[in-house]
Amino acid sequence: MKQHILIAGGGIGGMISALYLKKAGHDVTLVEKNERLGGRLAFVREKGYKVDEGPTIVLLPDMLKGILHEVGIDESSLDLVELDPLYTIQYQDGTSYTKYSDARRQLDEIRRVFPKEDQGFQRFMEEMTDRFQEGQQAFLEKSFHEKRTFFTKANMKILMKLKAYRTVQSALKKYFSDERLRDAYALQTLYVGGNPYEASAIYSLVSYSEHAHGIYYLKGGYASLVDILEGQLINMGVHVRKNEEVTQLMFEGKRAVKAKVNDEHVAADAFVINGDYPAALKQFGLDEQDRRKYVPSSGCVMVYLGLNKMYHEAPVHQFFMGEHFDQHMKEVFQTKTIPQDPSFYTFNPSIIDPSLAPEGCSVLYMLVPVPSGDHINWEEETDFVENMVERLEKRGFPRLRESIVWKKVRTPNDSLREGLFEGGSFGLAPNLFQSGVFRPQVKVSETDNLYAAGASTHPGGGVPIVMQSAKLMASVLLKDLNDRKEVKVSG
User: pTM of whole model > 0.85?
Assistant: First the structure.
């Protein structure tokens, strides 16, 4: 029997949820308060230039392509370019270390830059191969809305094998003696806004995955995925309502029955929240049922530049490390102060994608991890941005400032205005007690027919993982609908 499902939020999680549920034969309404879909997957556009506003690094390509295939999007729709080298890390002492997909080249590079660390790297890759497979099957591919399904002997054994009780940085000491190399394999927790000195060693699998599964670039920019998904929503007949907002959910007991969309009351059989989970709970008056004190991910200062030249010699992705990475992380996550000597990331896609800028020109993107929260007025911290652009020029992009055609800046203040939890850029922080069963699940507790998908729900942040969240949610929701149907029939 066809049911009506209403989804509040048109981010990647909401769009993938809609496609799975529509494919199952249900009526689906997707409500998005903004004029465009895609959430954090968006472009910054200016004067004929465009650059990704948010995510830039395409990880887990098989998961990404597999989910798209399941919702009817052919792989040929995506122009994915494999990057090898993956990226380069520039250290303050002048050392430069490049990562590769090719194992032989990687060993040669480690022997060149970090003599005597090659055996540790080989051990790291060998041990992580088994752990990744087991971890993916046990945790990424399962929902834990029924908590007992997490606390099994098999799962506890896998968690011990994954060293979940240790931090990323401490776990890496088993493999690498050089602090710089440990930093190179720990910084990936920042992809999802986590502190490598606090995040569970489970997240060491991200740096393994880069070598094992590769890093890709989506031609046209990662945000071009939004148009592909929106086209499929239209093709499948999902009812998309933009510039409209779900402002209230109405319940009868534990069952949601209607949503207030602008001034209209819309009935549905099930409801899905696609938004930053803690903020959504508060908006819909459900925060009293979930009183946990959530911890936000890190914030970011992003600087977007349109340039009148190209930097052909600079890789697509680079990380520039400060002198004391641990001090930077302390400032971001503990003292919550403006970093004095921050590490930062750069994205230089025009060298492989001329569609992003006028001929002979380029775009450049810089990301600096900073504290989340509302205690810093970033609009007043213009010196910080100018100092970072100056550092960027000195460390990797000579004569940069004279080449700038336009500049835009995004800070945690913008994230706060957009409803992201405490201005964090990546949803909830990926610490141990906000991972797995401890993270908000795809079915909202104490409700019969309210579900959630997104970066703050299990299994976590990052575009393919958010898509996996939507897949898990759809599976649970469809099973619940089927169970309810069977109860009605038997009754």
Answer: yes
On whether both 120 and 143 belong to a single domain, the answer is yes
Task: Report how many domains make up the chain.
Answer: 2
Neighbours of 72 (CB within 10 A): 12
52 domain-assigned: no
DSSP code, position 402: G
Residue 165 lies in a domain: yes
As a whole number of angstroms, the distance between CA 199 and CA 299 comes to: 16
CA distance linking residue 437 with residue 50, whole number of Å: 39
Together in a domain, 306 and 281: no
Active site residues: 210
Same domain, 92 and 146: yes
The CA-to-CA distance between both ends of the chain, in Å, stands at 16
- Residue 332: count other Cβ atoms within 10 Å of its Cβ: 25
- Answer whether residue 56 is part of any domain: no
b/e per residue, 88-106, with b = 16+ CB within 10 A?
bbbbeeeeebbbbbeeeeb
The Cα angle at residue 124 between residues 122 and 126, in degrees rounded to 5: 70
- What does the alpha-carbon distance between residue 356 and residue 359 come to, in Å, rounded to a whole number? 9
Is residue 440 domain-resident? yes
Structural contact between residues 33 and 262, judged by C-beta atoms closer than 8 angstroms: no
Residue 377 lies in domain: 80-219+296-421
DSSP one-letter string for 12-54:
HHHHHHHHHHHHTT-EEEEEESSSSSBTT--EEEETTEEEESS
237 and 123: one domain?
Answer: no
Same domain, 114 and 192: yes
**Do 274 and 204 fall within a single domain?**
no
Q: Which of 366, 398, 421 is the last residue in one of the domains?
A: 421
Of 365, 392, 421, the domain-final residue:
421
Do 311 and 391 fall into the same domain? yes
Residues 322 and 202 in one domain: yes
Distance CA 25, CA 21 (A): 7
pLDDT in tens, the chain (491 residues): 789 999 999 999 999 999 999 999 999 999 999 999 999 999 999 999 999 999 999 999 999 999 999 999 998 999 999 999 999 999 999 999 999 999 999 999 999 999 999 999 999 999 999 889 888 887 777 788 877 777 788 778 888 888 888 999 999 999 999 999 999 999 999 999 999 999 999 999 999 999 999 999 999 999 999 999 999 999 999 999 999 999 999 999 999 999 999 999 999 999 999 988 988 888 888 876 667 889 999 999 999 999 999 999 999 999 999 999 999 999 999 999 999 999 999 999 999 999 999 999 999 999 999 999 999 999 999 999 999 999 999 999 999 999 999 999 999 999 999 989 999 999 999 988 888 888 999 999 889 999 999 999 999 999 999 999 999 999 999 999 987 654 343 33
